[in-house]
Structure formats: C-alpha cells, structure tokens
Amino acid sequence: MALLFVIALALVATSHAGPESIVATGNSPSYVCKSKNSYYNVEGSCDSYIRCSDYVAVYQLCPDGLHFNPDVRYPNYPCGYPADVPCLRRGAVQPAQPTEECPHQYGYFPSPSATPDNCGHFRICIEGRAVDLDCPTGLAFNPDTSRCDWPSLVPSCKASAYLGFSCPAVDDNDDRVENFKYPGNCFYFFSCQHGNVRLLSCDDGAAFDSASGRCVDEELVNCTQY
C-alpha cells in the first residue's frame, strides 16, 4: 500500500504542476521570497502555495484532491494526500473537479463494488481516472483514513462476514489473545482479542500449529490436514 502512495504521488508530480502565476520577481531576498529556493503557504488556503525559485515567487495550486505540505523542502514535490497532509484549520480548498469515476481528480476512495461483507476494494484516482485495486489479504479499505486497515477498525465493514470467521464471545475485561486455524491454508490464522478478529500470516519458513495456537517451523506442521 505504501508503494502505491509513492507511485501515485510521482505520477502527480510529473503530470500536473498546478495553475501558476508570477507574483514577484527579483534576484535578492524580498518580502515574499526570504530564501532563494523555497515554498511558502498561502494564508487561508490548504492547497495553494508560493514557490520561490532564484527569488522569483510563483503562485501555484495543488491538483484537486491534494493539500500543500508546508514541511516539504524544496525542490521536493510539495503536494500530498489529505491523509498524509491534514489541513489543520489552515483554510479552504479549491472546488472539487469530479468526474464520472472520481469525486476528486486525485485521491484514494472506496470502490463502488465494495460492500460491508466485501470491503477490501478501493480505487485510486489520477487526473480524474480511476484504477480499482484491492487491499492486502486480511485488510479492508478505511474511507476515514484513505488507507487499508484492520477490518474491525473500519466502521463500514462487517469484519466477521468479510473474513469469514467470528471470534468466541469474551468478557470485556478479557485481554487474552486467542489464535485459530485458517481453513485450507496453514500459513494464515485468525487472531482474536476483545472479540475482534484479524487475519494474520506466519513469517517465512513458519506455519500455524493449531495445537499450540502459534506459528512454528513449517516442517513441524502437517499442512495437508488444513
């Protein structure tokens, strides 16, 4: 998932620099460009900024769906996804530019095919065009964070139905972690705590031993019985 974020931002940086206009020129520090090469945020805006290059100040606007990151150092691309760059009451954003496929030109959004029982689907939008993807095994897309997350932490997801397993009922004060085998695959297992289920996998070279409830050397596990 992290790699997808990096690739998507690289595509943004190379395909769209945003509207720009020169707001000041010069070859020495000014009231706008106090540093020769730098970025400055625009007061009252989450997605516009000033780019100073050789003390020339240029007003720029991040692509729709992205926010200006005031912590980015020049010349790195200064716009990022809202999940990574919260606005934090810095101001407003530009009007959305939706398409038939996407609510914004850029961003991560739930897939139309996602349901509470099948919540691992999401889509990434680049220049208003959607690419549908799936979260890694055992994770669900969380619209609140625009990331893949544990299903039990996604309000719109029915974790037990999605993963195909319900944890035994436990007392609210019971902090024990119980593990259960995953039918048909000895390298995965269900882990339960406070009644919440997660699908986990053993490390390379290990398999789940249902007798001990933990991962052991795979040579010690008869995977044919799964």
Automatic annotation (TrEMBL):
Gene3D superfamilies: Chitin binding domain
SMART domains: ChtBD2 (SM00494)
PANTHER family hit by this protein: CHITIN BINDING PERITROPHIN-A, CHITIN-BINDING TYPE-2 DOMAIN-CONTAINING PROTEIN-RELATED
Keyword Cell membrane set for record: no
One GO location term (cellular component): extracellular region
Record flagged with keyword Repeat: yes
Organism: Arctia plantaginis
UniProtKB keywords: Chitin-binding, Disulfide bond, Glycoprotein, Repeat, Signal
InterPro entries in UniProt: Chitin-bd_dom, Chitin-bd_dom_sf, Chitin_bind-dev_reg
Domain Chitin-binding type-2 stretches: 30-89, 99-159, 164-225
Protein name (Swiss-Prot/TrEMBL): Chitin-binding type-2 domain-containing protein
